[in-house]
Amino acid sequence: MVGKESLLSEKTLTLISHKLRTPLSIINGYSEAVLSQAAKEKFSPFTTKALGEIHKQGGRMSVLIDKLSAFNKVLSAQEDTLEKQSVPLKALIKECAAKAISQEDEGPLPAQPQSGVKRGTFIEIDCSSQLTLQANEEMLRLCICELLANAIKFNTKMEKTIKVQGTNHGDSISISVRDYGVGIRPQDVSKIFEPFYQVDDYFTGQVSGWGLGLPMVQRVLDLHHGSISVVSDRGLGSIFTLSFPL
In 3-128, which residue ranges form alpha helices assigned H by DSSP? Predict the structure, then answer.
């Protein structure tokens, strides 16, 4: 059951989400409309750049509001009313991989890019097409998308490689996401599942977000009697593993 403090938190998150959506929709709508007239109106380079940045940041905020709504929905979910179905894992992972890459926010190119190094994100999937998992498909999608988004976000390399593996262990099914990014400091590993906690320092740069993604994943695993573990080496990357009992 969700306690009184959690219920208060849900109401607060719902209110924040609702109040932010309306002004953001106006900002995004008008900025897009004005940008579409940039060539016709002959805006100055500065004005065009400023409008583009306004629209870009508005889009980022919309993504954050969606994350807030998703977290609120997962927070209020109850195990006894949770709808589950047989989910084909490989197809779902492919869907999440395509979404993560399409939403990737690429930073500026380095002043002197390394010769022969391509820029882009490459997600390798090792999972049987026959592997299925009894779970709530929407929540499982949220988990995989979140881990893939983090694997991309916390990687400063021009060429990013991410490996996703789905494995049947007989008594459980695991989904692991491995990246080769910045890694996590040992003192941060125990905190990253706390709501609103973010690992932002000189090594990662300031990364936008609410700090709700991993707590949301943890909540989904709790609802499925599963677990999440992380192994990380600073500067070498991290492996996040979701484990669901059969």
Answer: 4-35, 38-41, 45-76, 89-102
- Report the alpha-carbon distance of residue 185 to residue 191 in Å, rounded: 10
- What are the phi and psi torsion angles at 167 (to 5°)? -135, 135
Residue 216 Cα to chain centre, angstroms: 10
The secondary structure of 173-231 as a DSSP string is EEEEEEE-SS---HHHHTTTTSTT----STTT----S-S-HHHHHHHHHHHTT-EEEEE
Type and span of the H or E element at 164: strand 159-168
Q: What's the pLDDT tens digit per position in 183-226?
A: 888 888 888 888 777 765 534 444 456 678 899 999 999 999 99
Find the mean pLDDT for residues 92-102: 94
Residue type, 153: K
Q: pTM of the predicted model, to two decimals? A: 0.78
CA angle 185–118–143, rounded 5-degree value:
45
C-alpha dihedral, 232 to 233 to 236 to 240, nearest 10°:
-10
Q: CA 163 from chain center: how many Å?
A: 16
The DSSP symbol for 240 reads E
Residue type, 158: M
Alpha-carbon span 229 to 41, nearest angstrom: 54
